[in-house]
Amino acid sequence: MTDLLPDHYESQYSILDEYLSRYGRFEMGDMSSFTWNRDPKRLLFVLSRYKAVASMLDDESHVLEVGCGDAFGSRIVKQFVGELTVSDADLILINSARKLACPPFEFNCVHHDFLVSSLTSESSFTSAFLLDVLEHIPHEEQNQFLTNINNSLTKPSKIIIGMPSYESQSFASPESLEGHVNCQTKRGLRSSLLEVYNTVTVFSMNDEVLHTGFDKMSNYLLALCTI
Length: 227
Fold this sequence. Notes:
Helix content: 25-40%
Oligomer: single chain
Shape: globular
Radius of gyration: 19 Å
Number of strands: 8
Strand order of the largest sheet: 3-2-1-4-5-8-6-7
Largest sheet: 8 strands, mixed
Distance between the termini: 70 Å
Number of helices: 8
Strand content: 15-25%
């Protein structure tokens, strides 16, 4: 019997050492860390929305994310697309995102407010998405906000918009309610988005499940739009 034992009980786990040596230990950003410490299961729901977006934007050459927060879930989309640029109007959050924009799924980070202007210097975005953003935009400013995003894209383009449903707000936390000034019903969202998009298809989400179920039982809405 030997006193020498392998570093790992099973040899296939040596890949953990390889990746740790190559990329270091990955850390969460400000928002994702808060979520993990306060309500861990919610992180699963958030990441499932990114997975749905990634599937819809598979093979797009250059994707723009608006309102990325700390961009913890953004690398899921980067795994599916050619190039990803994330943006946020909050300087602290976009700086947190910059720390997570690292190998093997790098992405670009931009501090920008689409309520003010489009990204006119960029012309290569073939699609865009925004998750948990539109509900923070006053309804009277929604069309200008979305138009500024549209003007940053090549045409034709796909835009995916995710937001909590109006019906879900009776279960929202006080902190969420404070910032949610523009939650809409499924039909209401489709109607308002048709003011600025050629086509709008709205799906429902409950937890991590994407479906076409009864509108008023939708906890989250995911709209696929085209211009």
